[in-house]
Amino acid sequence: MATRNLLGGMEGGGTKFVCAVGHGPEDLLDEIRFPTTSPDETLGRALDFFEKHRPRLAAIGLAPFGPLDLNPASPSFGAITATPKPGWAGTNVLAAFRARFDLPLAFDLDVNAAAFGEYTWVPENRGLDSLVYYTIGTGIGAGIILGGQIVHGLTHPEAGHISLPHDRARDPFPGSCPFHGDCFEGLANGPAIGARWGQPADRLPDEHPAWELEAEYIAHAVANTILMLSPQRIVLGGGVMKRLHLFPLIRRRVREILNGYVASPVIAGDMEEYIVPPALGGRAGVLGALALGRRALEEAR
Ligand code: ZN
Residues lining ligand 1 (ion), CB within 5 A? Predict the structure, then answer.
């Protein structure tokens, strides 16, 4: 009989799903990526992937896009709630897996899983007990770890929708968020950059003024995060942050905004090890989901 020790992880993004089985970043046995279409088709493909590994699977971590119902006492626990993504509002991801797999199942937000992945697997993060992971791409969100735990609270943080200073003389773009207009996501997500400058963000050269403005918004969000949570590390991931020339612009502006007020040698220094790209790259989410699966297995024992 096969040993049942394999961990499964599913990162369910708004544009693509990534599923993997294995034991960690250096030990993945199988992995699949596919576009996010209808809930039935997309979850069907994910379920079929894990079905192949059923005899050896010990636990699965599920990390779809949100907003999610993360309250175990709620009747809709496990569901995607108010998403504008057609067809997905009310889809219960956890229930779909419970119906097929009698295994420990973990369930959390995709960006929370990415934060947990960086926190769990990256050697430089061992010994920390706090970390914030921002994803800045088509959407913006943050996973927050404090005291070694993923912060949920009432529902889960929605740090992509905080308000930031918006100088309308410098930037007349009204913002792209259907809920708030010029919140952080409305001003700084990939579609906002494209709409403001009339061409897709990935076609804008490094020296384009778009990036100085983008760094301005991200730096304000990062400075607010430092002031509010005092995390020991801030990871900036997602499609927009693949433009690595943003990092020095952001670090410089964060230092200017804080203006010497936060008394830490980390902030006084170059912040090159404080405000960082994800060490796991585009795999932070799925590897975090794997780590969530491992935690669910430990808790079930
Ligand atoms: Zn918003």
Answer: 161, 177, 179-180, 183, 185
